[in-house]
UniProtKB/TrEMBL annotation:
Residues 1-19 form the signal peptide. This is M1 family metallopeptidase. The lineage of its organism: Bacteria, Pseudomonadati, Pseudomonadota, Betaproteobacteria, Burkholderiales. Keywords: Signal. Residues 595-624, 767-794 are annotated as: Disordered. One of its GO terms (cellular component) is membrane. SUPFAM superfamilies: Metalloproteases ('zincins'), catalytic domain.
Length: 794
């Protein structure tokens, strides 16, 4: 008789058992969710033949009023309408208006619940001095743009309407497709104190030498994005969704005190007018050097700190094909630089920092910039800009084209002046520089819509940052990127899917940075493998550099270029909050019967003997029995048990063996072991299985099973594992590569989870007011000796 192969039989059974439940198809195609491909964005995820994007060129003349901490400027914008649409008005972003006392960012912000406030104990949970100061200052600070004249290039006034952080300019006549329009805006604003009010821009004041350091960004009215998917990007700036802008060329002149050093997007056009001969000579040397060359030394910067220039200098920069422009200026700046030229990249890596940043900054900053470019070039595209800058100032970490602001500094002991830094500060600095310089790729060049999707720049960038940090040193302390690092978050409540607008994200860092980075690691290491993944990921960068991709373009490119349907992956990781949790539920072993009654019946007998003796039998042991007392009662059945081989059995075996073909006999002789393993998908997110099989002889090996194993039943499946010798252990995901949130159900047999219990002594005698009252009062000197509390780490 022929039997169905075991796997087919088991499968039919599993399907019929589940037929009553509604079928949750985790592999259904994403087309029901994604926008329909068209001639602008095609079905393979590439820009279509009718792709278009707008362009805006800027000429800006700006002046820093150092004493009043304000900027005043005039800008000329030339806007190119490359769309097929007629535009009756233009929308401009006025992101500085977030600092107005009545901004939506302030009025719509909420705080933790009353219960959370009432429960707050200690520094971590409670309100800090800084938090209270920030709230009070933001209610009174005279922030936001003061818009002066808005005129056409021929001087005709234009009507405009300000809507919070947006401004609409009504055009004399609609802009036709293919036309350009030039207009001017005069504006000024007061600069926020970044350490007090927060923000991605602002000044920092140094009490010791009474100088300021300015990091200046979203400082001029900028063209809002207009594109095929959303029309005008009309989301107000609330603080989380960053800046979505058009590419263009910039010509910017910055007038600052003559003793300032300016770091800026773009290339300096007039070094002869603003740099000394020796600085220019050092810069020339830096271009060909293989380590950083100091352009302004610490000693020179410290000398500059003590003077105050009364005159000004104008620094002239030009930048081509950038989507924004930022700068930093101070007389406190130390400046070092090193050229980097390889492939299509020819750039100057440059760092600007006050003495308070040393000794960390002179050692790591410029090196970290070059490391970033080297690594990101491999995975994305050749860095195309002439400069890559890292500035130390009040902003903790923020990116702009060619320039980034990075916060970490050593700690200075108030009394001894000793400079030290923690491991966290060191790797925090290297990490933040890699991250912010890395943003040049995502989203400064691969220009995704940040105000819509934070993950498209932060997630992709954090993923490449993870790989770059791996290449910095072995065991680099990684907080994001490893699948295991996302497990606590995946277990947490109040999650939203990655595909959620930037302003509505809960658990922002985990949602938009860590989870996409971990997901891409799973995709690279576990789902696709490095070759397929790296090719597709680079293809995405190549297709979309200097263009504006949407999520669908990323998803489709990764599938198209890897030749793999990943709809299940995007659906699970990006559109749901389900976690991975696979449980190994049960295992049944099948040996293949030899059909030989001598072997098989002996085996059955030994199985029976292995069964535990019943309690009754145990207790009746030694009991006198009738058949023993009267042996004449015994017969054939007392001599032969149920497993006795009969001649009938032997004849049947011989007949069977004669009827078998040679290959069938050989198969019987192989003696394979079959294991039926039940897996339950407890978490819901479908995942590849990574099975570590341990054999009796000690050998271990891995079987990798693609996620499609769940395609007919996403909740429960049974797999057949065939081994040469008995299997003694099975572990699902032995390397923790799938972000499984509960590994305690991953092993068969189950493993004990080890931990240590800390016992605490009961505190007695606290709150004895009588004793506290009698404690002698300390003098001022005694208090000083005890030491002031340490300044908190950045
Ligand atoms: Zn970032």
């Amino acid at each position: 008789m022929r039997r169905l192969p075991i796997s087919v039989a088991a499968l039919c059974f599993a399907m019929s058992a589940l037929a009553a439940e509604p079928f949750d198809d985790k592999f259904r195609q994403l087309e029901e969710v994604l926008p329909t491909p068209n001639t602008i964005r095609n079905a393979s995820g590439a820009p279509g033949h009718a792709y278009w994007q707008q362009r805006a060129d800027y000429t800006i003349r700006a002046r820093l009023d150092e004493a009043n901490r304000s900027i005043s400027a005039t800008e000329t914008v030339t806007y190119y309408n490359n769309s097929p649409d007629s535009l009756p008005y233009l929308w401009i972003q006025l992101d500085q208006n977030i600092f107005q006392p009545g901004s939506d960012a302030r009025t719509t912000s909420t705080v933790a619940s009353r219960e959370a406030w009432a429960k707050a104990r200690g520094e971590e949970e409670g309100m800090k001095f800084e938090g209270m100061r920030s709230i009070l200052e933001s209610r009174t600070f005279d922030g936001g743009f003061k818009i002066g004249a808005v005129k056409t290039s021929s001087g005709q006034p234009l009507t405009y309407t300000i809507n919070k952080t947006m401004m609409r300019i009504d055009l004399p006549q609609p802009m036709k497709p293919g036309s350009r329009f030039t207009f001017n805006i005069d504006f000024s604003y007061n600069i926020n104190e970044a350490k007090v009010m927060g923000g991605r821009t602002g000044y920092e004041k140094f009490d010791e030498d009474k100088n300021d350091l300015f990091e200046i960004a979203h400082w001029f009215p900028r063209m809002a994005a207009y594109y095929d998917v959303y029309g005008w990007q009309h989301k107000q700036f609330l603080g989380a969704g960053e800046f979505t802008l058009e590419f263009g060329d910039y010509d910017v002149q910055l007038t600052v005190p003559s003793d300032h050093i300016v770091a800026s997007t773009g290339e300096l056009q007039n070094p002869g007018a603003v740099l000394t001969a020796i600085q220019r000579e050092r810069l020339e040397r830096a271009r060909k050097s293989n380590k950083p060359v100091v352009i302004v030394t610490q000693r020179e910067a410290e000398a500059a700190e003590k003077r105050r220039a009364t005159d000004t200098k104008t620094w002239h920069f030009k930048a081509k094909n950038v989507r924004d422009f930022a700068f930093a200026t101070s007389r406190k700046f130390i400046w070092d630089a090193q050229g980097y030229k390889k492939g299509g990249t020819d750039t100057m890596a440059m760092s600007y920092y006050p003495k308070e940043g040393n000794p960390l900054w002179e050692k790591y900053s410029t090196q970290a910039i070059i490391h970033t470019i080297e690594q990101y070039n491999k995975y994305s595209l050749d860095y195309p800009y002439p400069a890559a800058i890292s500035v130390n100032g009040p902003v903790g970490g923020m990116e702009y084209p060619m320039i980034s602001f990075n916060g970490p500094r050593p700690t200075k002991d108030k009394k001894t002046g000793e400079l030290t830094y923690s491991k966290r500060t060191k790797y925090g600095l290297i990490g933040v520089i890699i991250h912010e310089v890395g943003h040049n790729y995502y989203p400064m060049i691969i220009n995704s819509d940040e105000r819509q999707w934070t993950w498209m720049d932060e997630g992709l960038n954090t993923f490449v940052q993870y790989m770059a940090q791996q290449a910095w040193e072995e065991n680099y302390p990684q907080s994001r990127g490893e699948p295991r690092a996302i497990v606590d978050y995946m277990r947490s409540r109040n999650q939203v899917p990655i595909m959620t607008n930037s302003e509505s994200l809960l658990q922002f860092g985990n949602n938009a940075y860590s989870k996409p980075a971990a997901a891409l690691n799973v995709l690279r290491e576990t789902v696709l493998g490095r070759d397929l993944f790296d090719f597709a990921f680079r293809e995405y960068a190549q297709r979309w550099k200097f263009k504006r991709p949407t999520p669908a373009d990323f998803f489709r490119t990764m599938e198209d270029a890897s030749g793999t349907d990943l709809d299940w992956f995007w659906r699970g990781w990006f559109y749901t909050t389900e976690p991975v949790d696979v449980s190994v539920d049960g295992i049944t072993e099948y040996g293949i019967s030899s059909k030989n009654p001598e072997t098989e019946k002996a085996l059955q007998r030994s199985r029976r003997a292995e069964e535990p003796m019943s309690v009754t039998d145990q207790r009746n042991k030694g009991m006198p029995r009738r058949v023993d007392a009267q042996p004449e009662l015994k017969d054939f059945y007392n001599e032969h048990d149920d497993f006795t081989v009969t001649n009938k059995d032997r004849n049947k075996y011989n007949e069977t063996m004669e009827s078998l073909e040679d290959w069938e006999k050989a198969l019987l002789a192989q003696g394979k072991h079959l294991y039926l393993v039940d897996f339950t998908n407890v978490g819901g997110l479908v995942t590849p299985l990574v099975l570590e099989v341990e054999l009796k002889g000690g050998k271990k090996y891995i079987e990798r099973v693609p996620a499609e194993v769940w395609r007919m039943s996403s909740k429960k499946i049974t797999k057949l594992i065939v081994t040469d010798e008995p299997m003694v252990g099975l572990t699902q995901d032995p390397y923790w590569e799938t972000a499984d949130i509960d590994v305690s159900n991953n092993a068969w047999p189950r493993k004990v989870t080890p931990s240590r219990l800390e016992l605490f002594k009961t505190k007695r005698g606290e709150g004895d007011m009588m004793k506290d009252f009698n404690t002698p009062l300390k003098t001022k000197t005694e208090q000083d000796k005890a030491g002031a509390p340490e300044k908190a780490e950045e």
